[in-house]
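Try this one yourself first.
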């Protein structure tokens, strides 16, 4: 069975005007807030090879292990040798000339070997070594598959972020979250299928990292802010009755075209109704005060460090959205003193500030999903666009390194309590079982029941997919 569809020519003239009207109809909460709604029926109606399940969702290609994905994006690039890939040889060589040939780096201000300032300790029954930067996550080590041999072709943030999110190092391709909802739809009638929880740092590359590109606009991410005013872009500005009357007016305008049987018009009308319902569904889904005091405390709500409180809210919201059928959630980092995970200087201070923000919330998320029986069906991915150099930039920083870095996965069919692949004794280059971002994407889709080679859309004269002409499913990662 092919899973392709031909979308050229499927757009009506004046679509922008329609979206302007939709924005007004929905009380002014903007395009992003309803972007991923109502696409299930459209995908089923216009793709002959998609089969509706219960009249709503397309069928997967094979049985899925993961129903949802939570991507914990560590903006900037944590050092692999400082987090999940211990390198005692590098520590022994601290301050001495780096003995390997160096590739060009982003800023080319390279110094001697820079050992990690943190100790590593075994976590869980498997004894997976985890840095003291992550004492809380270390407790969940038996659920983690630590991939130590990730690679990327880019060492500059913007291109590397496009590649991580879309499979191409340039703007203009759909995000992996857009592909996931395009392939599977959303299990919620009233919430978007693809949500980005913005902790304060949008990745270099901007909102294009979360875009739909040539997929229908219903697949772009909806961006929510996990602060006290998280619903500021969703709260209605008009009475429900007035909005209902506007919806009726728009439907009357569409009636003539609707008589032609054009499924696109039917979908547009359904989008309007769904945008209307979001005003009720989103406040309920994001009401973290409905959680117990102990749950909020576990996620770091009582921390005296504001970035921990922000990321804790993101992680708790991610769990609540998964419970309500949202397909793909990305959590971005909060702002900390100094810089994101991009320590060209002040490595110790910067990495500790960033780790303090995310460590407790991530561990709480994993434990909470597990306790609720959701981890088995939720794939959690932790990582960034690249790693860091084992030699210093200046005296106390690390430059970008795409030749070998670490990411980890948990839940959703992943075999935890293990490491996969290896870098050399300095943590510079992947030397055992190197993995590409395309492989990560292929495996993610596979776990969701999608064959990455069959999820295609015709655009620009060729069949496009998230993995382009690359990618292999990493079956060794799967339980």
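Now uncover the answer:
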């Amino acid at each position: 069975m092919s899973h392709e569809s031909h979308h050229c020519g499927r757009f009506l003239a004046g679509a922008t005007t329609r979206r302007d009207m939709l924005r007004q109809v929905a009380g002014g909460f903007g395009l992003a807030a309803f972007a991923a709604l109502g696409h299930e029926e459209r995908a089923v109606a216009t793709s002959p090879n998609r089969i509706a399940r219960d009249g709503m969702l397309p069928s997967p290609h094979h049985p899925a292990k993961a129903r949802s994905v939570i991507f914990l994006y560590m903006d900037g690039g944590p050092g692999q040798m400082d987090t999940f890939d211990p390198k005692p040889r590098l520590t022994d060589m601290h301050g001495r000339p780096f003995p390997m040939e160096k590739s060009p780096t982003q800023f080319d201000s390279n110094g001697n070997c820079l050992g990690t300032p943190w100790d590593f300790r075994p976590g869980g029954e498997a004894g997976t070594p985890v840095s003291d930067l992550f004492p809380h996550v270390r407790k969940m080590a038996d659920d983690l598959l630590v991939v130590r041999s990730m690679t990327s072709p880019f060492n500059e943030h913007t291109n590397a972020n496009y590649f991580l999110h879309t499979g191409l190092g340039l703007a203009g391709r759909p995000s992996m979250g857009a592909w996931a909802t395009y392939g599977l739809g959303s299990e919620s009638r009233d919430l978007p299928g693809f949500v980005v929880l913005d902790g304060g740092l949008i990745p270099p590359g901007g909102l294009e990292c979360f875009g739909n590109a040539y997929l229908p606009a219903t697949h772009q991410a909806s961006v929510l802010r996990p602060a006290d005013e998280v619903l500021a872009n969703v709260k209605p500005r008009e009475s429900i009755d007035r909005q209902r009357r506007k919806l009726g007016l728009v439907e009357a305008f569409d009636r003539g075209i609707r008589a032609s049987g054009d499924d696109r018009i039917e979908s547009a009308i359904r989008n309007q109704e769904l945008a209307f319902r979001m005003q009720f569904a989103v406040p309920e889904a994001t009401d973290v005060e409905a959680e117990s005091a102990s749950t909020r405390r576990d996620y770091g709500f009582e921390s005296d460090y504001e970035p921990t409180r922000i990321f804790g809210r993101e992680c708790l919201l991610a769990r609540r959205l998964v419970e309500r059928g949202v397909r793909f959630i990305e959590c971005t980092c909060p702002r900390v003193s100094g810089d994101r995970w991009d320590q060209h200087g002040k490595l110790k201070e910067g990495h500790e500030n960033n780790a303090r923000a995310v460590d407790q919330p991530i561990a709480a998320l994993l434990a909470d999903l597990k306790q609720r029986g959701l981890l088995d069906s939720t794939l959690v991915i932790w990582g960034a666009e690249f790693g860091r150099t084992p030699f210093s930039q200046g005296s106390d920083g690390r430059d970008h390194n795409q030749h070998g870095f670490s990411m980890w996965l948990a839940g959703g069919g992943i075999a935890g309590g293990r490491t996969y692949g290896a870098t050399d004794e300095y943590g510079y280059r992947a030397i055992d079982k190197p993995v590409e971002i395309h492989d990560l994407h292929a495996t993610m889709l596979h776990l969701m029941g999608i064959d990455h080679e069959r999820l295609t859309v015709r655009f620009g004269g060729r069949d496009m997919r998230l993995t382009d002409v690359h990618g292999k499913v990493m079956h060794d990662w799967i339980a």
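Discussion: The chain has one domain: 3-477. The mean pLDDT is 85.
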